[in-house]
Amino acid sequence: MRTDSPQTIYRKDYTPPSFLVDSVELGFDLDPARTIVASRIRMRHNPASSSRSIELHGEHIELVQVRLNGKVLKPSQYKLTASTLTIPKAPDEVELDIETILAPQDNTSLSGLYVSNHNFFTQCEAEGFRRITFFPDRPDVMARYTVMLRADKAKYPVLLSNGNLIEEGDLGDGRHYAKWEDPFKKPSYLFALVAAKLVCQEEHFKLADGRTVLLQVWVEEGNLDKTDYAMQSLKNSIRWDEERFGLELDLDRFMIVAVGDFNMGAMENKGLNIFNTKYVLANPRVATDVDYAGIEAVVGHEYFHNWTGNRVTCRDWFQLSLKEGLTVFRDQEFSADMIGTDTGRAVTRIDQVRTLRQAQFPEDAGPMAHPVRPDSFVEINNFYTVTIYEKGAEVVRMYQTLVGREGFRKGMDLYFARHDEQAVQCDDFRAAMADANDRDFQQFERWYSQAGTPVVKAASQYDAAAQTFTLTLSQSCPATPGQPQKLPFHIPVTVGLLGADGCDLSLIVDGVAAETNSVVLELTQAEQTFVFAQVKEAPVPSLLRDFSAPVVLQYDYSDAQLLHLFRHDSDPVNRWEAGQRLAMARLLKLTAAHAAGETLSLDDTFIEAQRALLADDTLDAAFRELALILPSETIIAEQLAQVDPHAIHAARQFMRRTIAEALKPELLAQYHANLTPGDYSPDALSAGKRALKNLALAYLLVAPGKEELALAQQQFDSAGNMTDRAAALVALIHSGDEAAAQAALADFYRDFSGEALVVDKWFAMQAAAPTTDVAAVRQLMTHPAFTLKNPNRARSLIFSFANGNPSQFHTQDGSGYAFWAEQVIALDALNPQVAARLARSMDRWRRYAPALQEHMRRALERVAAKKNLSNDVMEVVSKALSN
Ligand code: B3K
Ligand code: ZN
């Protein structure tokens, strides 16, 4: 797969493009085995560049001919390598005509132009356009595109590209054509085409400014009954962006197309978003509440990119978080606003915190740690990470915390006023936020340049005589690859104080009275002290409310203080957090006790707190469900200097079993109290009830008797929606009753074998069950429905096992790691992007017990030694192995 030897690219080496492109005309003669692409590019020399040579990128394509201003170039007039085409000493104005040939049916990397289920699709971000034609394939080259598509009419009745359809017709020979024009300048990564046999749900929709636009959701024929929610989410997204940010749809037509073979979630191509079917298709029979929420978020995300990403794009790929962090923040706010209630908002926030701790904090502490704006990379596709996306969104959120919602809107307005139709940098966004609000965000830049999760330590002192509460905050940040030392960050720490009655105390900080019961302290130095005045009693501090910064907060809370917060904190995020702290302290003790061979026990205090919360009907079901979930095995592992996955698993299982036994009557009561009879609706209230009810079911099935098994079986048999059916199946799989589990799995497969996304669930549930060992995974790979070629399917089985089944993946004999190495190598030959994701499963290998480490190192070395490894996988494994 590798074309040249791997090369590190540095942000500091950025140079402006030597030529700018005004217009691009593309002609496609589509054929799976031999597609011919004719491209006409009008270019002019960029005065900002000292170079006179035209630098084009091109990979895995055959060059037929290149003409410059009408004259065919001889091979001596240009330089062609495996990845570039250079024309030296070009005149000021250039018209290039380039013809290339490609074989989409052989393109298993799913980057560039490829075939999925006999249809054509493209994926060009980050560098897929160069697999279609030779072009300056970099985001700071923005041009206007006209696209002519020609294909067999019977096989590919639908021909789509970006922008507006300006002409279509028959070619006479069984082929037809369609011509599309995109009125906006765009970088090549936003180009897209679809040539396929598809059908659509469509609707005319009125925008706030009175214009009517055409909205379409395109799917394969059998899936037309699964497009309603995507369409509804699209309309909600359009409205929301008008209302919250004053941003309107700038096209007459907006299309979403679903494809079954796709490397990630979806892609924001201008006017023609291409989606993984997972984020489009839903009806109650096949999709869970989580799937519905995912569709809303991803439809929103891609739509919001139309402004944050497309109208204003990135100067270079080091600026990726400029569009991704901002757009994730926007989709998070959208989802929260769609629920509309304060607890609903908090529930989405808690989910975000969980994702950060589960995936981003480990990344930031491992060999692939990188700043939100990286300084270097080998393969850009490896940098579509939780750091760029989720930590990037946290960085954007901190602006809003610091300047308020209105100030944030002013900053956004200024950003668009300054940079519409430009390719810019993270610094430009920061400058807009600072200038619009008259703030100094110089130090804030460190959130973009320094990797690692900062640690904030808090210490406090109450002076009863002076009625002061003194809070001292200090910060540090661990070393990360290439960054041994860090400078202090600008950290917003939102704080409240609870009195003995559980109510918030009013706040006067450093002489200033706060308007609300929370105050945003700005920690900018290594250590800072804040004095709260007129504090009439010793308070319990509620620190980092709403998770106001992506940091680890350390404070020496007593159990009594945590229980107080868990019962009373007016900030639901910190209320949840107090419960997590109580649980984590116990899980760590239990893990150590298990490793030392001691008998395990759990205190009543914790159980009683859980009992009270479970039965507290004044709280949303969704919140109670989250507060009852114990920290995951991965999150526990992150707290330990040396990881013993088996001890962690045993400790967590013990805790689950103890809670399940102690709270059995309450669990059963909540199960029945949270049934959702009647027609299925994915709204947050109903989804929250189902979540709590299904959590109760899962607990009841930890060590079930006959009645509990019957309850799960009954839910499985009679469920009217996939959320309940899948939850019952998972509960049966984890119940220890092998016969019941196997029978249910067989029924489930029989009922849903025609629904690819449900078959993915079927594989994933088995892969993540602690009863599934490597041999069982290998056995599942021989199932006729399994294929490594489809990324969703590979993820459902292989990734779910490697990342979601720690106690089986990390067996003492290292067989899990050997399996991992095999699969990384096999996947790499097909699809390097997906292979490199799997390669990341070994990131934290140095933290495991020595015997496991040894097996892991060998597995990593085995992959690294493979000939012709892609740059993608090579970068990941070599970073893991290096010191
Ligand atoms: N921008 C795309 C991701 C492209 C990934 C390329 N490896 C989807 C998104 O973030 O919306
Ligand atoms: Zn995105």
Distance from first to last alpha carbon:
27 Å
In the CATH hierarchy, the third-tier topology of the domain at 1-197 is known as: Immunoglobulin-like
Secondary structural class: alpha+beta
**Shape assignment:** globular
Name the assembly state. single chain
Tell me which CATH architecture of the domain at 1-197 applies here: Sandwich
What does the average pLDDT come to? 98
Could you give the order of strands across the largest sheet? 6-5-9-3-2-12-15-14
- Strand proportion, as a percent range, falls in 15-25%
Number of helices: 26
- The share of residues in helices is 40-55%
Bound molecules: (3S)-3,7-diaminoheptanoic acid, zinc ion
Low-pLDDT regions: none
Kindly provide the radius of gyration, computed on alpha-carbon positions and rounded to a whole number of angstroms.
Answer: 28 Å
> How would a textbook summarize the main sheet?
8 strands, mixed
Tell me, what is the CATH class of the domain at 1-197? Mainly Beta
Overall number of strands: 33
Look at the structure and name the CATH superfamily of the domain at 1-197: tricorn interacting facor f3 domain
Structure description:
The protein is 41% helix and 21% strand. The longest helix has 34 residues, at 386-419. It contains 26 helices and 33 strands. The chain is an alpha+beta fold and 883 residues long. Strand 25 and strand 26 form a beta hairpin. The structure holds (3S)-3,7-diaminoheptanoic acid (B3K) and zinc ion.
